[in-house]
Amino acid sequence: MLMDPGSIVHFCSDCYCGINSRSCRLDWFGRKVCDCYPGYEQIDGYCLARTTTVRPRTTTRDCYCGINSRSCRLNWFGRKICDCYPGYEQIDGYCLARTTTVRPITTTRGKIKKSHTNF
Predict the structure, then answer these.
(1) Separation between Cα atoms, residue 107 and residue 113, nearest integer Å
(2) Cα 55 to chain centroid, rounded
(3) Predicted confidence (pLDDT) per residue in 63-113, tens digit
(4) Looking at the DSSP assignment, which residues form a beta bridge with residue 94?
(5) What is the C-alpha to C-alpha distance for residues 13 and 3, in angstroms, rounded to an integer?
(6) Of 84, 57, 90, 53, which Cα lies nearest the Cα of 71?
């Protein structure tokens, strides 16, 4: 059986994944499969830069602490832990400005405790 040379060129040109791929092939069903370089993944038939270094799970949970946080993570129990910038603290799951920078005065038996400082 002889193949038309034009169909071979057409076949090869249909399997192109972009400059960030090592190779391209068609699977048994004729779908394009890209072998992408590290840091790239097949998106819509081309090897594009990954937006994250962590592969998404089938179930994801929101972990966003706002613009005043360095990072967000979930602890063993699934509770959100925010790493807030200085001057901010985690309040209701977000890094918000501290309401006070002075420690509150504590009382003992109704009397105010005074702190003495030697200068």
Answers:
(1) 6
(2) 9
(3) 889 999 999 988 888 888 999 999 999 998 899 998 875 666 666 665 555
(4) 91
(5) 16
(6) 84
> Rounded distance, CA 93 to CA 64, Å?
8
Evaluate whether 97 touches 87 at the Cβ level (below 8 Å).
Answer: yes
Place of tokens 């400082």: 117
CA dist 91 and 106 (Å) reads 22
What pTM was estimated for this model as a whole?
0.35
Paired residues of 43 in beta bridges: 46
List the structure tokens of 53.
Answer: 């270094």
The model's pLDDT over 3-36, given as tens digits with 9 standing for 90+, comes to: 444 444 444 557 899 999 999 999 888 889 999 9
Given a contact cutoff of 8 angstroms between Cβ atoms, the answer to whether 37 and 47 are in contact is: yes
Residues 6+ apart with CB under 8 A from 39: 49, 50
